[in-house]
Design a protein that fits this description.
The protein is of the alpha+beta class. About 60% of the residues lie in helices and about 10% in strands.
Amino acid sequence: MTRTSTRVLILVASLATLGSCASPPPQQQPDVQVDVPANWTEIPLSDADVPDSWWIGFKDGNLDALIAEALQNNPTLREAASRIAAASATTRSVQAGAMPNISAGVDASRTQTVQSFGGPSLTELETQRIGVSLNLQWEIDLWGRVRAAQTAAIADREAVEAAYYGARLSLIVQVTKAYFSATESWLQLQLANSNLDSAKELAERVEDRFKAGLRSALDYRLALADVAVTESRLESRKRLYKLSRRQLEVLLGRYPSARVETSSALPNQLPVAPGGLPAQLLTRRPDIVEAERRVAAADARVRAAYLDLLPRISLTSSTGLASDQVSDILDGKFFVWNLIGNLLAPIFDGGRRWAEISRSEALEEGALAYYVVVALKAFAEVENSLSNEFHLRRELAALQRSVDESAAAVEISTDRYYQGALDITQVIQTRRQYFSSESARLTAQLALLNTRVDLYSALGGGFDSSSVIENRDSHEGS
């Protein structure tokens, strides 16, 4: 290939790179009406960041290990990660559309012509041609239409990345809650065992008194009925404990065999409450950042749709060697090249381009509306978590008083029954009240833990939007 042909291709390729670079759209809050207060209405919080590994604050090494296992093995999270790879490939494909399309070709032909000059004789003429070519096609992105499409693709990928972080946070929250739930189920099971032991002990003492003629058969039958009811509740607790462990194992990516190790106690103290202001939430939650990136992508597609109304300029270049002899292919004397410019201006397309503009604008309006939905849902989750924690603390304190008083009532009623001052139904009722209060206390303690987990999640769980948006060097084509 001659020096001239090489320069032609270099010139065209250099021109292509001038307009091919697209940057990610900057992060900015969409122009929507969301009234954001200066602070939370329930309980004011500091403006401190949520810790990245907030679950460590519960000081449970087993929980830490299970979360690490889930992040490594959970198939749902791996599926979310695969969507990032797919979105990255789509971005590269869109970016490639701004670059020249260069192809190489080899063609060979043989033609035979039969000529007659009015007589019986025929003349056969056979020709052949062999060529090697290098072809280039490129649309000059003079108005930025292709760059707008690239920007939209980059924003789409950033939205998928934010969705991955949202799935990761959701997984951590689910594992933490499932772990606490399994622990609470184990404690409820131990409580049911204790309840059954207490019921059996009471029935044995009533039986002894019945045989001695000190108590009626009715007392004995009621005591045995209470044992049977307590046994049924114990089986229910065993079933729920196995169910809770299987739910946890599925999140871990394990076979659900109900053998995962849980803790023997729920945390008595909560970690330090995370901080954050309502305005900061818009950049701290991965679902809000994802929605904002969808708006940015939709806005870029609206620009691309309008720019599609403008003329397109394209270049077509071909260079190569052609001869009727294979031996001449490497000879520069048989070099041929061409460079063609083309201007294509839309005149009539049946309204297709304007329809695409309308569609893009409608999708942008939908993305804006969805952004508002996600933002309001996020604000509500924080407010609900703060409110729930306030009331659950008061509920838990009241239940603890109920447990203490019920325990004292059990002791008094049992003594009075043996003294003959009470009947068996009052003893059974008092004992049930105690175990019911203790069970409710465990449930409220679990709810308080889950509410704190919900607060960490509602505040973004340590997510940093710069890991998705501001790392410009990691974006292809930037």
